[in-house]
Amino acid sequence: MKLIQITAIFLMGMVTAMANDLSKSIIKVSTTLQSYNASQPWEKTAPSKRRGLGAVLNGQKVLTTAEMVANSNFIELETADGLHTFPAKVSAVDYEANLALVVPTTDKGKEALSKAKPFELSSPVELKDEVEIVQLEDNGMTIVTEGRLQGADIVSSFVDGHFFLTYEIKASLQSAANSYTIPVLHKGKLLGLLTSYSSKDQLLDVIAPEIVAAFLKDAADGDYVGFPSLGIASTATTDPNFRDWLKLSDEQGGLYITRVQPDSPASKAGIEKGDVLLAIDGNEIDRKGFYRANGYGQLYWTHLIRGVKSTGDTVKMTVLRDGKKSQHSAVLTRTPEGIIPSHTYDRAPRFLVKGGLIFQELSSSYLQAFGKDWENRAPINLLDALNHPEDYEEGRNRIVFISATIPTPATLGYEKVNSAIVTKVNGQDIADIPSLIQALSKPDEQGIHTIEIDESPNKIYLDSKTADTVDRQLLLRGLPSLSRETE
Description:
This protein is an alpha+beta fold. Helix content is 20%, strand content 35%. The strands form five sheets. Strands 21, 22, 23, 24, 25, 26, 27 and 28 form an eight-stranded antiparallel beta sheet that branches. It has a six-stranded antiparallel β-barrel with strand order 1-2-3-6-5-4. The chain has a six-stranded antiparallel beta barrel with strand order 7-8-9-12-11-10.
């Protein structure tokens, strides 16, 4: 009995010592966030607060999640003991991977971080390995919870549609302050950052160390580029009739390529819509898009691009076209954003108000403003553009649409027009908000603007003099600006 008690006391002392030591390596992060109003892009929403933890790294840098700093007006760091607080700024951020580096902006802050104990990065771990989850109470007390790695998957943790390697860890976390983002360790080294926690299932999602290491390597020179992408959309080849049509044998897996983004690595490598992607760098891809990864079991194929490779690396692809195999090499780059940005964090949306018509550029962020069930609640035509951008790309840099109509003397009869995609104005194709502004500077000889849209009434006629009068009245009534041409 005494031996058990002595062992328990010894272990408790070790945990306390670890907790005290960790307090020199973690720091509180507080941010004030303020995004732009989706329906009124000339103004911002009410500010909100977010509190989490960051991991101190070499060079007086702090690693946290991008979610902590997205649309931030102010960032403040505070030492674990609460003795020092100081402002900070973002030095590198990747919203797709959900990672950010922040640095102090004052000499006081730099001095405080110089006394901290930077974390070393952990190497990847194996299934069933134990990890430590670190939390910090307001009084500076460090809480260390043990967890166990249950599995790994490719997960979208912040920006929809962007997937990265994520560890799934089994642990029961306590309720503690500053826990929006917390570090996860393996044998005292930084493994990753928590991005979500299910108290019901007692499961944590943690950004994997491979992704953290790649982010830090890219950010080291102060010129962050970002994770590469291949630039394709694909679908499974599980349907037997579909497979027969593609001339796929029973032994072959493969993904059917439904779209190749213009100017992407895949496009430059000669990949075409209708090809079947069979393998990447010798890793065979099955009918659902998975391959066997050492140490992790089955992972989705995108990890071979965004988890294994860096921008500038070359990948070799095996594809099937008309029943024949071919080899293609692609130099990986950051694929162009496309006509519908996947997010608009830290960017002011471009817009134009003309005579009461509100014009905006479509983004995923705008659609997500329709709420939790946005994929069913957002306007059908805008969702179609999101899901089939190839049908809208020609002649466009962005998709311009009328988001709402303010009832004014200039918009009589058009009050119900909203969510209508603009195709032409005064005979000119509309590529983005700047081109719209330019087109609206030239009404016809009768002083009428003709705005062509993708739904009834198909054409809107706007009297330029009446519209200009309305614009002046809107400014007098408090509208801060009629347009924003730059993001």
